[in-house]
Write a structure and sequence with these properties.
Chains: A alpha+beta, B mainly alpha, C mainly alpha
Largest sheet of chain B: none
Number of helices of chain C: 12
Distance between the termini of chain B: 11 Å
Number of helices of chain B: 13
Number of domains of chain C: 2
Strand content of chain C: under 5%
Structural class of chain B: mainly alpha
Shape of chain C: flat
Largest sheet of chain C: none
Largest interface: B-C, 110 and 112 residues
Oligomer: heterotrimer
Radius of gyration of chain B: 24 Å
Order of helices and strands of chain B: HHHHHHHHHHHHH
Chain lengths: 418, 318, 281
Amino acid sequence: MKTVLRRLAVAATFLSSVALSVPAGAADITWPSHQWGEANNAPIMLELKKLFEQENPGNTVQNITVPQAVFFDKQFADISAGNPADVATMYDADIRAYIEANLLEPLDAYYAAAGIAIDKLIPTRTLAQKDGKIYGVPFQINARALFVNEKLLNEAGLEPPKSFEEFQAAIRKMRRPDKLQFGYATVSKPGNTAVAYIEMMPIVAGFGGGFFKDGKPNATAPETVAALRFIKSLHEEQLIPRGMEVNAYRQLFVEGKVGMYATGAFFAASVANGNKDTFAHLNAIPLPFPSGKTTAITVFLGVPKAAKNKDLAARLLMRMLKDDIQARIVTVGKTVPGRVGLIPASFAADNKWFKAFEEAALSAASYAPHGAEQYGAEIAKIVVEHVEGMLYSGVSVDETADRLQKALTTFIASKRKA
Amino acid sequence: MAGPKIATLRDFGNPNGSMRRWQIDWSTRERLVPFFFLAPSFLALALVSLYPMAHAFFISFHADGVGAVGRFVGFEQYQRILSSDYFPRVLRISVLWTVGNVIFVWAVGLATALMLDRNFPGRPLVRAMFILPWAMPYVAAGLIWGWMFDYEFGVLNYLIQNAGLSASKLNFLLACPDALTSLTAVSVWKLFPLGTVMFLAGLQTIPVDHYEAARVDGAGPIQCFWYVTLPGLRNVTIMLTLLITIWTFGRAFTIIFLLTEGGPAGCTETIVIRSYLEAFKFFHLGTASAIGVIVLLIALAFSVAYLAYAYRKEVGNA
Amino acid sequence: MPEMHAVKRLAWEALFYAALLLLLVSVAFPFFWMVKTSVETGQGLFSYPPHLLPAAYSLEGYRTVLEQTSVGLWLWNSVLVASVSTILALTAGVSGAYGLSRFRYRGKRMLALVILTTQMMPPLVLIIPIYTIFIQLGLTDNLLGLILGNFAFSLPVVIWMMKSIFDSIPFEIEEAARVDGASWLCVLTRVTVPIALPGLVATGIFTFLAGWDEFMFARTIVTSTSKWVGTVGLASFIGAYVTPWDQILAAATIFTLPPVLLFLAVQKYFIAGLGAGGVKG
C-alpha cells in the first residue's frame, strides 16, 4: 500500500511541478521536528496541520516528535542515508550548508503561486537565498534582546540600563553572593560548542564585532577583542553563574535569581510557564552594548530534494506564510514570524516586553559567521575552543584573539582551496 | 603441588593451565560441525558489523560530501588527519583516558573483590550495592554526576569544602587536567563492578592449597597476595584489560559527551568525540570514517601485541 | 604476645570495615543523590548549601512524568528490546562460542580475532551505514530493527565471554557423552550449558543491560514516539529552552529501577557466574 502511495506521490510531483493548481494524489507528508514538543510552537504547527489537511483533503501531515537533543543528528543521518523527511528544520548555518551541498528544493515557483513577495520577508531570509533562488521558508526569527527582571532591578534601586556603563553597573549591583543572585548570565561551561557560540554572539555583535566579516576572519578586530575582554571579565569577577549549562542558568533566571539575560523572544514562554512571579516582572530592552547591533537565529523550514512529497511539502510551507498562521506565531509562539509587519497591535500592547524583539528582528544580523555561514559548525568549534582556553586555561585576551585569527585563517584557506 | 604455569594461546581462558587436547574425529561431517555452530553469529555480525565496517572503510577514501559520497581521493583524508593540529592532542587524550580507566578499574575492581571475598555480616547486600553503578544507565549517570560536579550548586564541592579538604571550590569540569580526571572517575565508577565480578569469580578458582603452601613457607599476607593471588588472577587481568581498553579507547562516548563534550578547550576531546563532531556536527562523513579506521587499526595492533605478549611461551624451572 | 596480636587484628578489622564503608558510600552516593533530588522541589536544586535531605518533599516530578509522558510505554519498549535481543544473542553466541572453544580447525584464531575486531570501531562511524542497510531492509522505525541491531552489537562480547567460560570447563563429561553417541548439539544443550548456567546468566544480564542502555542506535532508527525506548524518552526531557530537572531525574530514577531490581534478583548467580566450571586444585 505504501509503495502505491509513494508512486502516486512521485507521479503527482512530476505533473504538478509548474502547474501548481493540479491537486496531488493522496499523500502523507512527514514532518519530524523537536518543535512538536515545545509548548509555544506545537499549537501553531498543529493548527497549520489541521488547516492544511482540511484544505487539501486526502493528504495528511505526519507530526513526528523528535527529542531536541537528538533531532539534528537524526536529520543528518536521514539525509545521508538517502531517506530524508519531507520537511527539514534548519538554523542559519545548517541551511547554508545544505544549500551549498545542493540538497534543498528551490521554492520560488511556490512563493509566486502563493502570491507572497520574497522581499517582504524578514532581512535574514537572504540566508536561504543563493544565485537568485530561495530554498527555504523562515518560520520564526529569534533576535536577541535583553530580558530583565524588574523586581531585581527595583530591589537594587536601578532602572533598566540604557547605556553600556549603566549595564555594567547593573550587573555589579545585582550580584549578591549571599543570595546566590546574579546580574547576568551567559555561557559558562565547556561543552556544547554550538550553544556556547550562540550565547556568546549577542555580546560580540553588541560590541560591533564578529568572528568573520565578508568571509574573512575578524577575530583581531578591536570590537571583537573588546567583546572577548568583557566576557572574560564576567568570568573572572564571578559576576555570572559559573560552570552551568545553558538550560540550567536559564532555569535560574526563571526562578528569579538572575537579573538580566540576552536571548530570543521564545524564552518568555518558558518564564511564563515556569514562574508566574518572574513573568509578572518580565520586561525586555534592546541590547545595551556599545554598538547597538544585535544578532538573531532564524529557524528555516525547507524541502529536501530527495523528499518523497516535495510538492505537497512546499505547499504546506507556503500555507504557513499566510496571515492567520503568521499571527499565531506571534500570539502563541511569542516570537517574530517570517513576514514583516504582521504583529497584531493588541499583542504588542499586552506584552510590553515584546517590542524590543520586534525591533531587533528588523535590524539583526545572523549569528552565523558573516560570509562563511555554511561552515558555521566548524567555525563555532574553533572559536569556542579558543574562548574556553581564555576562560578556563588562563590564556590572555590578546593572545586568544591572535591564535584564533591564525586558526580561522588556516581553516578558511583550507576550505577555499578544496 | 603447583608447578610452573605454562600457557599457550590455544589454552587461553583455562585457569588451570592444563594441556588438554581435544580428541577429534576428523571425518568431513565432523569438520563442518563448528561452522554450523558459528553460522548464525557470523551472519548477524556480517550484516551489522562487517559490512558497515567495510562501507566505512570505503567512504574513508572519498572526500566529504553532505548527503552523498564525495569523489575518490585515495589517502588524502588520512594524510589530512594525521598531519592535523588536533590529531596528536586527541590521540594523547584518548591514551590518557584509556590508561587511567584500565588502571583504576583493575585496582578498584580487585580491591573490592578482595574485600568482598571475606565473609562478613551483610555481605550479600553489600555485594549487591557494589554492582549498582553497572546497572545505572549511562544517561542517568551522566546527568546526576554532571549536577554533582556543578561549580555553583554541586554537592561535591559542598562536601569537600565542609570536610576541610579544600579552601576554595574545585573546578571539576572547568579546568584542565581536572576535567579529564573527573571524567575518568565517573567512568571508573561505572565500569569497576565488571572488574569486581570478574575478579571475584577468578578468586574462587585459585586452589586453597596454594595459599596453604605459601603460608607453610612463611609468607605473610602481602607475599601471599603477590605470589599466589595475582598470578592466579592472571587470565582475568588479561581479559579485563583487553575489554576495558577496547571499550574505553574506541567506544566510550556518553559520559564525556554529556559532561564536557570535549571541553574545556578540547582537553577532554577523545578520538571518539572527535569522530562524532566530524560526522554529525561538521557533516564530514569521509573524515569521520577515516578516524574510525585509524581507531580500529590502533586497537587491533594493541590487541594482537598484547595477546601475543600475555600468552608468549615461558619456560619455567620445575 | 597474644594481646598485641589481638589488638593488631582488631586494628586491621576496623580498617577493613572503614575502607569498606567509605567505598560503599562513594559507590552508592550518586544513586542516593538522584533519588533525593527527584523527590525534592524545583527550588531545591538551586539552593546552596545543598540539602542532604530534602527540605521540602514533592512528588511533582514523578506525577508529571507518569501522567504527561508515555514513560510506561518507553519502559515496556526497552524491556522488549533488551530481553528479546538478549535471548537471541545468547542463543547465537553460545553456539558460536562453543564452535570457537571446542574444535580445532584452520583459521580459528583468525576468526576469534575478527570477532573481537568488530568491537573496535567507534559505533558512531558505523551508525549511518547500518541505518542505510536497515532502511533498505525495511527495519527502520520498528522495534524489530532495534532488537536485531542490539542483538548483533552484543554478540561479540557474548561470544568472548562464553568462550572463556567454556574453555574453563574440562572436556571430560562432554567427551563421555560423545563416546556414548550423543550429537554435538545434544552435548551442548544437555551437558555443557547446564554446567555453564551461572556464567550464562551473568552474560545474559550483561547483555540485557547493554540493550537497556543503548542510545546511539535507538535514537537514529526510531522515529515514531510509540517506538521510543527509555533512553530516547529520557533525552526528550532535555528541552531546547529549559530542562525540567525534577522531571528528568524522576524519569531517570524510574528508568534505573528495572535493571537494578533484575540485578538484585539474580546477583547470586553472578559471583559464581564468570568462573563457572572451574575445578579447584
